[in-house]
Structures are given as structure tokens and as C-alpha cells.
Amino acid sequence: MKKQLLRKNDLLIISCLLLISQSLFSQNIDDWYVNMPDVLNPVLTKQNRLELLEYHKAHRGDSITNRFGNQSYLLGLDSLNKRIVIKNTSTSTFDMKIVEPEGVAPVVGIVRTVCAPVCLSSVEFYDTAWNQIPVQFTMPKAMEWVDEKSIPADKIDLQWVKSVMEVSFVSLSFSAENQLLIAKNNTLDFLAEDDRKILSPFVSDKPIRFKLQGWIWVRE
């Protein structure tokens, strides 16, 4: 009897936690953005974030003076797909999306991109209590965009190509309409002009797309 009661209690607790999680993630992206911890986006205070969204909704503009006295801009707000993109500074953007994969609880994904001047991103994931969670994502390397087989071995040394492309500049963004993470290779922009001319014919400009399976991002 005690074991049955314990099992019923466990099921009740699990059900309550699931309901709480579903309730939290039923909030729109506006709520998540405004109420997130300031440390996740220190350029804008909570009041800044609230005013920026209110100005946008009232058609009074899409910019706000941030805590450092400069302008930050709302680049995109998609309530249906739960995504918001903010240009924090002239060289940085903040991309936040509620990712809802099958089989696991939804998570908050945050991509930060800095262009100084070549764009480079990082990505983090959080649960409903804003605890960082170990969602697995491996940033692709610049060489993954290189078609090695098309490089003429009698004219271009493959080892030289690998050494030139060793430092990777990859920017990320969440897709606008689905549960994908898009990786774009910017490494050619970092190279000297002569090297760029030699390599560009063999480097794809197509983004690499990743989808979330469980808590692992896999290449589509």
C-alpha cells in the first residue's frame, strides 16, 4: 500500500512539474525577453527591454537608449515562432528563441554574435528557471565548408588550405519559422585578399543547418 501511495505521489509530482513547465513556456517571447536575468544581456536593463517592446507595439520606433548611452535596436519580433532579435550595439546582436523539440521540455536558446569586424557567435541554452543546461552543440569548423575534392592538388597544397582555414569565424542564428540553428561561415572575410581569391571557388557559401534531437543538435 505504501509503495502504491509513493508511486501515486511521484506521478502527481511529475504531472505538476510538467504542467508548470508547459504553463511557463506558454508565455510569449516578450515575457521571456523582458523577465530574463539582466546578466544574460547586460547592455539593456529590464526597463530598457520593456520600453523597447512597448515602443515597437505602439509603432513609436524600434530603438532604445541602452545603459551605456548608445542605441539598441529591435531587429525582429516573431511572437508565433517565439523568437526575438536585438542589435545590442553597432557590432553585436542578441538572438533568443524558445526551442520546442519533440520528446523533451522546451528550452530557451540564446545566440550572441560579435562582429569585430568578422562575425563570430556563441550559443547557450536555459531551462524554465534560467539555469544553463548542457544541450550539446558542436560549432562547425571552417574546413567543413571546403570541397577538398575539387581542389587541384598540382596547383594548391591541401595542407596550406587547412592551415589558412584553421581559425574559424562562424556566425549562428535561429531559423525564423522552424526549430533549426543555422551556421554561416565567415572565415573568408578574415583572410588576406590574395588567399581569399585562391580559396573562394572551393568554399561553399551555403549555411549548415542543425536540428535538435533530444538535447543534441545534429546536422540536418
Account of the 3D structure:
This protein has helices spanning 2-25, 29-35, 46-57, 158-164, 193-199; strands at 63-65, 71-78, 83-89, 92-99, 107-115, 119-126, 170-174, 180-185, 208-213, 216-219. It is an alpha+beta fold and 220 residues long. The protein has one domain (2-219). A six-stranded antiparallel sheet has the order 1-2-3-4-5-6, covered by helices on one side. The protein has a four-stranded antiparallel sheet with strand order 7-8-9-10, with no helix packed on it. Strand 9 and strand 10 form a beta hairpin. Helix 2 packs antiparallel against helix 3 (46-57). The longest helix has 24 residues, at 2-25. The termini are far apart. The model is unreliable at 10-25 (pLDDT under 50).
Number of distinct helices: 5
Number of domains: 1
Which percent range fits the helix content? 25-40%
The biggest sheet, with number of strands, parallel, antiparallel or mixed sense and barrel status, is: 6 strands, antiparallel
The number of strands is: 10
SSE pattern, N- to C-terminal? HHHEEEEEEHEEHEE
Instruction: Round the Cα radius of gyration to an integer and report it.
Output: 22 Å
